[in-house]
Design goal:
The complex is a heterodimer of chains A (about 270) and B (about 270). Chain A has about 270 residues and is mainly α. Chain A is about 85% helix and about 0% strand. Chain A is built from ten helices and no strands. In chain A, helix 3 packs across helix 7, helix 4 runs parallel beside helix 7 and helix 5 packs antiparallel against helix 10. The radius of gyration of chain A is 23 Å and the shape is globular. Chain B is α/β, with parallel strands linked by helices. Chain B has a domain of about 180 residues: P-loop containing nucleotide triphosphate hydrolases (Rossmann fold), CATH 3.40.50.300. Chain B has ten helices and ten strands. In chain B, a hairpin with a 2-residue loop joins strand 1 and strand 2. The N and C termini of chain B lie far apart (about 45 Å). Classes of the chains: A mainly alpha (about 270), B alpha/beta (about 270).
Chain lengths: ~270, ~270
């Protein structure tokens, strides 16, 4: 009888362990988030540190954002025109491309691309600093690594992602314009006027911007958290980098649904 | 019979008093006590994994002991809050085993790092001071190299220049001789001694390189399994006929520190399969 009870208790313990482990991880992340926010004053005191990181996170991501934005716009133009033309509405392709990009694809795809390029790089860099004792050395020099290493990257990420999203949207719309006007023969005036009349600044552009800020906080926080808490081995850094990309993608997609529901359905 | 270290309480910069430290149930240090006199170069020697680096981390306040006290100057390190600890650390320098140079900065910026972070000195003064530190370790000409362009010995010397950047009262060296060629080893050894004397600092060297450290240190603690097994001046250690000291100093493979990791009886283990 006691054997049976022990097995049952073991089963429930095994069932509950992953939950408690996740709760502990969540608590640790929340504590680290507060720590990073409190340390972020350094971004105002020493903007040079943030500008330097913006170069690595923002400027170095420009190529992937420009190329991806252009191709997404090109494909959107082709697909939307083909579908809309079946209903005799090919002329509104500019509006559909712009709304799709500004509301959804711009913020989401930019966030996914930046987390893959810059987020993983940030994790690997901080993880490697930990592995080679650079963070410990900093602590021994009476310098807080969270303030000197993490906070500038966090602030730079939050500033860079919305800017890169805006660039992605502009280039995407330009791609849609190239396909619709120069390839499929939609009138230029119609393309732009439909877009102008349908895209609302507050409802679409500002909401898209708000989304990109939320995504920015999420992906850059995941990146710095994973790097800072990576196991100090080559394998640990590699695992943390993978985790950054996977978790960022899941969080961005999940967050997008929630934000969309609040913003565009009035929940 | 261990000789009494020739120093009074006021002369001791670091006092480790009956310290025990454990990672969970694994005891690393057990009721260990030692003293480091001001102005001296003291070596803490022992085999890998005997708790030497843990001892440095306790002195630097990165770890807290389960019991006992670690005192630096007149401050009890485990009781300090973060701000007090950081104030104390500004008076300490530490050289890490692999240098721990900041890989995104060149040699100059690595050495100037603490000056820029902790002082309001103008850039011209920082430049002069940094070049002086680099000159002291013989690497003034390498100021613009990146850490990836340095040899192991050069990286260790840059790390040494960085450790003394703010003229600390206490410099801690974690395995400063590990992985160095004989020339670099002699250079680093000589630098530790001369810089300690020139700065009027106190140095603690954690090492298992017996021959090189005995050339430059004033006092030696020999550790094994988290306890101090022997201590004394260099002459005391060299004269000692204690089996543990002899095994360590003469680099014997077997002795009080066994060659084999504890295991069940050999034949029985083979028969099991």
């Amino acid at each position: 009888m006691s054997d049976y009870l022990q097995r049952v208790s073991g089963f429930f313990q095994a069932l509950g362990r992953p939950v408690t482990e996740q709760l502990v991880a969540l608590g640790r992340a929340a504590r680290f988030f507060v720590e990073v926010i409190l340390a972020s004053g350094i971004c105002l005191r020493r903007p040079g540190l943030v500008v330097r990181e913006m170069y690595f996170i923002g400027v170095m991501s420009l190529v992937i954002i420009l190329v991806s934005g252009l191709f997404v716009g090109l494909v959107l133009g082709l697909q939307m025109y083909d579908t809309l033309e079946r209903f005799g509405s090919g002329d509104i392709v500019g509006m559909v491309v712009a709304l799709s990009l500004v509301r959804e694809l711009g913020p989401v795809l930019s966030a996914l691309l930046i987390s893959s390029r810059a987020g993983s790089a940030v994790t690997a860099e901080i993880g490697l600093m930990k592995t080679t004792e650079q963070l410990t050395a900093m602590e021994m020099m009476a310098i807080q690594p969270v303030a000197r290493v993490v906070a500038p990257r966090f602030c730079a990420g939050i500033l860079s992602v919305p800017l890169l999203t805006a660039i992605f949207n502009v280039v995407g719309i330009f791609g849609g314009y190239l396909v619709a006007v120069h390839l499929l023969g939609v009138d230029t005036g119609t393309f732009w006027s439909q877009m102008e009349s349908a895209v609302d600044f507050r409802m679409d552009v500002v909401n898209g911007f708000i989304k990109s800020v939320f995504f920015a906080v999420a992906i850059i926080f995941i990146a710095v958290f994973q790097g800072f808490h990576a196991t100090a081995t080559a394998e640990g850094v590699s695992l943390a980098t993978t985790q950054t990309v996977v978790k960022s993608a899941l969080v961005v997609l999940g967050m997008d649904f929630v934000l969309t529901a609040f913003m565009f359905r009035g929940i | 019979m261990a000789p009494t270290p020739p120093h009074s309480a006021a002369e001791n910069l670091v006092t480790i008093d009956d310290v025990t430290f454990a990672y969970d149930s694994r005891v690393i240090l057990e009721n260990i006590s030692l003293k480091v006199t001001r102005g001296k170069v003291v070596a803490i020697m022992g085999a890998s994994g005997c708790g030497k680096t843990t001892l440095l981390r306790l002195i630097g306040g990165q770890l807290k002991p389960a019991s006992g006290n670690v005192q630096v100057g007149n401050l009890s390190v485990p009781t300090l809050n973060t701000a007090e600890l950081f104030r104390l650390r500004r008076k300490m320098g530490m050289l890490f085993q692999m240098g721990a140079l900041f890989t995104d900065m060149n040699v100059f910026d690595n050495v100037a790092f603490q000056m820029r972070e902790h002082t309001d000195l103008p850039e011209t003064a920082i430049r002069d001071l940094t070049l002086m530190k680099l000159h002291a370790v013989g690497l003034r000409g390498a100021w613009n190299l990146m850490p990836s362009e340095l040899s192991g010995g050069m990286a260790r010397r840059v790390a040494l220049a960085r450790a003394i950047a703010l003229d600390p009262m206490l410099v801690m060296y974690d395995e400063p001789f590990a992985g160095l060629d004989p020339i670099s080893l002699a250079i680093v050894g000589r630098l530790i001694r001369t810089l300690n004397d020139a700065l009027g600092a106190t140095s603690i060297i954690v090492t298992h390189d017996v021959q090189e450290s005995l050339k430059i240190v004033d006092y030696v603690y020999l550790m094994s399994d988290g306890v101090v097994m022997a201590e004394g001046t260099v002459a005391d250690i060299q004269r000692s006929d204690d089996p543990f000291v002899r095994q360590f100093v003469d680099a014997r493979a077997d002795g009080p520190v066994p060659f084999h990791y504890p295991a069940q009886e050999y034949q029985a283990m083979l028969m099991e399969s």
